[in-house]
Amino acid sequence: MEREVREIPGLRYETCRGCGLRWNIAKGQTIPKDGYLCPRCRDKLRRGH
């Protein structure tokens, strides 16, 4: 079952390099050259999974 993804105009979205999901991020947030890592993937990485 696929969910319809609706992005809100005016907000900034980035695709996570870990899970491939699109995330709404802060407009002023800088993205590393190796790509955005979402909070879930950052937590997994921190815990060593």
What does this structure look like?
With 49 residues, the protein is α+β, with helices and mostly antiparallel strands. The chain is 18% helix and 16% strand. The chain has 1 helix and 2 strands; from the N terminus they run ββα. The chain has one helix spanning 39-47, and strands at 12-15, 22-25. A two-stranded antiparallel sheet has the order 1-2. The model has no long low-confidence stretch (mean pLDDT 91).
Give the arrangement of secondary structure elements:
Blueprint: E1 12-15, E2 22-25, H1 39-47
Antiparallel strand pairs: 1-2
Structure in a nutshell:
With 49 residues, the protein is of the alpha+beta class.
Q: Percent range for helical residues?
A: 10-25%
**Mean of the pLDDT scores?**
91
List the secondary-structure elements in sequence, H or E: EEH
Question: Treating each run of at least 4 consecutive H or I residues as one helix, how many helices?
Answer: 1
Q: Number of DSSP strands?
A: 2
The geometry reads as flat
Properties at a glance:
single chain; 49 residues; alpha+beta; two-stranded antiparallel sheet; 1 helix; 2 strands
